Each structure stands twice: as C-alpha cells, then as structure tokens.
Amino acid sequence: MSRDPSSLERGEAELRRSFARALALALALGTAACTRDEAKSSAPRDAGTDAPRDPCKPELAGLFTGIVDGATECIAWQRHACGIPADIHPVDGGCTFSVADCQKLCPSFGAAGCRASDASCSNGIVTNGSAVISCDFCVGGIGRRPTGLERATATAPLTGEWFAEMARLEAASVLAFVELRRALVAHGAPGELVRAVSSAIDDERRHARVAARLARRHGGRPSAVRVRPRALPSLEVLATENAVEGEVLETHGALRLLFAAERARDPEVRAAFAAIGRDETRHAALARALGAWFRRRLPSAARARVDERRRRAVAALGSAPAGDGAPPELGFPAAAAARALLAAV
Length: 345
Fold this sequence. Notes:
This protein has helices at residues 7-39, 99-105, 158-186, 191-217, 235-263, 267-297, 300-319, 335-342; strands spanning 59-68, 71-80, 96-97, 113-116, 121-122, 125-126, 131-136. By secondary structure, the protein is α+β, with helices and mostly antiparallel strands. The strands form 2 sheets. The protein has a 5-stranded antiparallel β-sheet with strand order 1-2-7-4-3.
C-alpha cells in the first residue's frame, strides 16, 4: 500500500513545479540573448563604439557576491593585461592601493578597497606584467553558509578558481547543516525536519567532493574551511539565517545550477550541475518548511524582523550583477534570464 507524501515531499513537488516554470522562461530568454549576440560582429570592440577594444583596458575576470557572517560581501577581480598603470603606486610599496587609485583599478563596480590578488603579489610586492586586482565593493551564492565563515584567497586560473570556491562553500554547507541540526534538536524541532537536515549533510559532502574534482581538473585547489565557533543561536537568529541562506540564497543557487545544467559546454559539468541542482532544490524546500516552523514559534515582532531580512536579501540579489563572474563556458544566466529566475525565489 502506498503512503501519503509528507509535508516536506509535497513542498518539494510544489517548488519543483515553480522552478520548472521559471527555468522555461529563463532558458527562452537566454536563447534570445544568445541569438542577438551571435548576430553582432565577432570582432572585440568597446561597448557603444565602432573602435577596436583597447587591449590594456581593465576587464572583469571574476565576481563573488553573497552574505557571509550576516553581512553582504562583494569581490570583483579586475584583470589588467598590460600591468598596473604607471601613475598608480601601491601604498607603502606593498600590494594594497589607496581608495582613490582603487576607483581607477576597479572600473566595473568601483571599490571601497583593493589589493593585488595573491597570484599578482609576490613577497609583498606587485609583480610585473599582467596583474589581477581584488576589489572589495558592495551593492547594499551556492549552498548554505555557516555564520562565521572566513573568506578564502584565490590563486588558480578562473575556472579552477571558481570550482575551488564552489567546493569550499559546499564543504562549509556541511558545517552549516551540522550546526543547524544541533540547534534544531536543542529547540525541539520535529523529527521529520531533523532527519531532512541529516540527509542534507550527506548531500553537501557529496557536492564538495564533486566540486573539488572539477576544481583539480581545471587547475584549482580548494582551500580549507574555517568557521568561527559560536554559542547556541536563538530561534530568531536561526529563522533569520534560514530565511537569508536557505529561502533566498540556497533557492537562488539551485535555480542557477539547474539553468547552467542546460547551458554548460562540458558534459561532465552539466551532469554535476544537474545532480547538485536537484539536491539543492530539496534543500530549498526544506528551508521553506523550516521557515514555516520558525514562524509558528516566533512572536509577531520577531517574524517581522525575519521577513525584513529576507526582503533585503532578495533585493541584494536583484541589484547585484547577473551571474557571479563565472566563466562563460559554465553556462550561468545573463541579465534577462537571471531576472526570470529571481522571480521564483
């Protein structure tokens, strides 16, 4: 005799239907964008002009935006193929630049601070020739991140670097779910939710292994995960973290992976993104179920604060640049498709 689906299973099925509609629209918009792009001249040119592109003009080499330790973090890597301009000098002869010079070195989004990336900084001095500048900026990711997660440095080629960071964040998600399970048990959460979190821990371990393998294949090496310890969080803190990391970022990450699973050039990457995207969809449904449980236990004032943090997280995604600086061959959505996906969060 077949059993009735659980509330979690019903929520996941509903979310998958919602995702399917959003992905169909986003993929259609992505196809239209590709058609328009292919109709343009393939010669590299500066935007809005007929002049050939300046080979020394800074180019965006990578981008990360997300919420770490409760705060929005935004890092752009700006490539200077011809080296640092002669009229710009590091502070005290090192690898860090003044805020005024950062505005010149980081033209894509500006910067509140910047420094030469590890690959472009040797023995505390900026290396000669082509350089990559790490630019810290903020307008206001994949997997659930634990509070206290510390930032990693990046030194690999862009694709390997991207997968190395993905592997690090997936490994961090293991710790996030371990901490969440401990807190849920302490706060008396239903067994169904605790068991679902335990399954998510196994999923994230598998994701970290897959991403690490792809990183090594592309010349990257995942760094160790470092998380600052903390005391048992309150229900409101748990609800806020779940709203931001689970209901918004993890949900958005699942959609982006499922989109890229259709567009990535490499069959192995497509298969990996499809499998991880399916798991992350289940985690997104879990986040919604957790959110409903938290809401039933929180007073109205606390619920309003959690809702406000969720709205701010969605707004931050909406105002961030499309994608996260992932290499084009990974197939992540451009602007119009990204907006269609965000509507499903």
